[in-house]
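Below sits my pick:
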Amino acid sequence: MIRALWSTQLQERLRLPCLWTGQGVVRGAQALGLRLRNRWLFAFDILVLPVVIFASYAFRLGTPDLGPFWSSYGQFVFICVALAPMMFIRAGLYSRFWPYATAEDFANLILVTVTLVVISRLAVLIVGASLELAGASAVKPPPVGAFVLTLFGTVASVCAPRFALSLAGMTSFNRQTANSQEPVVILGAGHAGVMIAREIRRNQHLNLKVAAFVDDDPTKMGTVIHGIKVEGRCQDLADVALHTHASKAIIAMPSAPGSTIREIADICKSANVEAQIVPGLYDLIGGQVRIEQLRHVEIEDLLRREPIHTDLAAVEATITGKSVLVTGAGGSIGSELCRQILRFHPREMILLGHGENSIFSIQRELLRLVHEANNASLSPTEIVPVIADIRFVERVDAVFESYRPDVVFHAGAHKHVPLMEQHPTEAILTNVCGTENVLAASKRVGVERFVYISTDKAVNPTSVMGASKRAAELLVLQAAKDVVRPYVVVRFGNVLGSRGSVVLTMKDQIARGGPVTVTHPEMVRFFMTIPEAVQLVLQASVIGTGGEVFTFDMGEPVRILDLARDLIRLSGLTEDEDIDIEFIGPRPGEKLYEELFLESEDYSRTSHEKIFISKPTPKMQTSDFHTKLDQLKQVAHGRDDAAVRSHLQALVPKYQPGSITATHGMWCHQPGQERSSVSGDHQPARVASAFEIAIETGTK
């Protein structure tokens, strides 16, 4: 810690060599005249130094008569008194407002003072040795004991008045604000809770006071952490809030799963306490918790899962120092990919997208992150924005020839199911033709690793969007065979907070007073947060060797009706009283249940507990696949929507458009078992248990 403080503060603030130049003296004089806020502290420091040094000598020698040490004492005092103003002013010790001083301020004060005494001691020894070499009478060097006593005495003398000011300031402020501060209870007495408590104490303008911790860890019961007592368990919140008069609670459990957060949110509501929460680990940059990150409980918190363990070394080896291109970089997934990739210090990051505003936005954010990182050991990542439409092969080729990326994450696509039902040609031109263009350019310039972001809607698709993504998957798998490189597909479900997400739609409906629309009471979906999904994408990208489809374990499926009810409750409203829920029927191309594996895919767990891998069977592509693909591209360029649907079905035989009853009741089909259509009797729990049985028994 001392070494870090020396490098970041003393080197920047002291700049001792310049003090001996004319410019340094002038600057010091200006600082003395213009920046000196604590003049009486300056006077005290100058006066106390001779006294402390004399007392140290006298105590060490056992007599006030220093005898042969008077010369070294005089030199010690002269050098100390001469250096102290320059060093203290340069370090900003007289520009601080000590009643509000922090621990960092006092650490800096101690370091500067120790440096002053050590330099003065060395200077006395050098002067004495120089005089002796010049033939002058020898000067008795200062006793080591006197130096040690001077060191401790000077630190204590310089710190004492400032500490008294700080103590008086805190006492005065606490007395003035005691009645205006709002008591809060922190749920979770772990690292995050302690950091939040420190932040609240440091930021007195918040007018908050931590009244108590509550935590379910029995070893913490009754303990005192930074002067704050752990009063009980989370279920005791109502009693704790009553006797502390707290009307607000802060949930400081960034690693807790959604089920725990849901339970605690209900406890807060029952206790009539306003709940705020620290974001999950996926949303905490660098793992640091700050008071400004506190927010109300969101639906993402209720669906939170246990943290994913990522092989950071493998991801770093794949990305560090490489040129990385992300298509769809301005979108929800693409932009988060860019943020997380940046942490691994690529040499260059190419942000390819069609929308200029979104690319400009993520470019500014990444440039700010690069500036804040300021890693001296690594060259800063070059951020390159590129406006391009992947449907135009010439433009894609030009971009790849210009930048020749090493790694490509292909996230650019049309993903909105109902809109692509209305505009099937656009889905084919972007999702199929665009992917083919990106793949061809990647093969041409020798891209080392290619990751395609797909969707669970590509499995037994009932929508144009899903079928187009399945066709793109087949293109990637074929390219992997051609280049024998890790070209892989990553497949997952809905992401919370993405553009067009059902969550954003429902929030908007609630804000307008309702009703909240749900397509079907038994409609279920798999959900992930965007940071969580991207973290698994990066992990899957380093597992693949080529031609694999990776699928994420997304936990339990969520019933959309339950999602709507949670959002209404989190908004502080009541279903049927404040907000109505209206069933509008499934939209074209929608399933009741999503699936993650095809019947023909041979899947198994990978070395990562949250990622499954499936290898395509030889029969997954028909011999006339490329002929059918060319026909599909031809009718798409001709803008013939009816022909597009027909040729898409020929290319992707599993595509069954328009009929929701064709959706399977299980998202993993077991051999020898007839497929069943969805009905109102199927429950989400049955979907999950079927998958678990398939995994445990080893059936595919």
Q: What stands out?
A: Confidence is low (pLDDT under 50) at residues 1-36, 659-700. The radius of gyration is 34 Å. The chain has three domains: 2-176, 182-302, 320-497+528-554+597-697. The CA atoms of residues 240 and 607 lie 45 Å apart.
